[in-house]
Each structure stands twice: as C-alpha cells, then as structure tokens.
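task queued by scheduler; priority normal; single chain, no ligands, no partner chains; default sampling; output format set to structure tokens
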Amino acid sequence: MKRVAMSVVVLILGLGSWTGWAMTAAEKPFVSNIDSQTGDIHVPEGYTLWPVLGTWSHAKTEGDSGIQEHHVVYTQPETIQHYQQTGEFPDGAVLVKELLNTKTMAMTTGPAVGHATTVKGWFVLIRDTKGRFPSSSLWGDGWGWSFFDAEDSMHTESKDYKTDCIPCHTPARQLAPKEAVDSDKWIYSFGYPVLQNK
C-alpha cells in the first residue's frame, strides 16, 4: 500500500513539474527582444557583444568627399553557425544594423579616411518562419521589421513594413543566391562574407 501511495505521489510531482516546464516553454518568447503578445520589437541589449556579420559604408553624394554614414550589422553566433551549415537564416535570427554618424579626415593612410562616431539609429530584423504575428503591420514576408531612432531603442519609428522597409530590401532579391529560401532573399547576404566561411 505504501509503495502504491509513493508511486502516486511521485507521479503527481512529476506531472506538476512537466506542466510547469510546458507552461514556461509556452510563455517564453522565441527571442528576447520582442513583446510575445503584440510582437513589438526593441533593440536587444548587449547586441554589440555579438559577432559582426558585416559592414557597409555610404559615401557622401554632395560636398567634400568621404563617408556619410557607416553601418555595422550584428547577429547571434548561432545564426552564423546555422547559416554556414544550412544556407538559411534560422527561426529567431536577429539582425541588428547599427547606423553610425561619421567623420572624414586626412590621415597617414590617405587624404580622406572616414571613421564612425556616434549612433544614429538601428534597424532590427527578426526571422520568423512560423508567421507568429499575422495582425501586426511590422511582421510579414518571413521577418519582423523595425527602425529605431538613437533617442529611443524601445519604440520603433516604423509603422508598416511594406511601405517603410520592403522598398529598400527589394533589390536584394535580384542579388540573392538562386537557391536561397524565398524569405532569406530580402537580406543582402552577399555583403556578409562570414556566412560563406565554413
């Protein structure tokens, strides 16, 4: 009788632990920098500790020669590893493009050398293979999309990804690898050589 009672207690405790784990797993967002109910995105803390995926420099089009803006793109180490192994961005991949003001000056390496100065803002993309937020105007085409001004990393300036983000990413589709997953074609992956290193 005691043995049966003990078995029942162990079973109940086991079910309680499993239920608690299941509830925690269900409540946990698939990435930490979103509101799991609304899909609202914010700039992830500590992203500068992630590997640099790649960099972009935008030349001045008027006035003195030099760099107008510099972009540094960060992602999680596991995103790079997954892409190198599969050729695809994994669910939950976060890309943070940090926009930086610049200064151009003469140096011993050249007469017009540009370097980054202060943060101007951020673009944040989150890979979503499950279509988690169909009612949000900032989620679709396989990604969550948001732009943030340097003054506020918690609240996006973006209203609708189709008008605020897609136009700048459309050219990437013609430059993407033909074998790429359709949603991954929105990313200018050719600018990230580390993805090709295996």
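post-processing summary
- Residues 1-30 form one domain.
- Residues 2-27 form the longest helix (26 residues).
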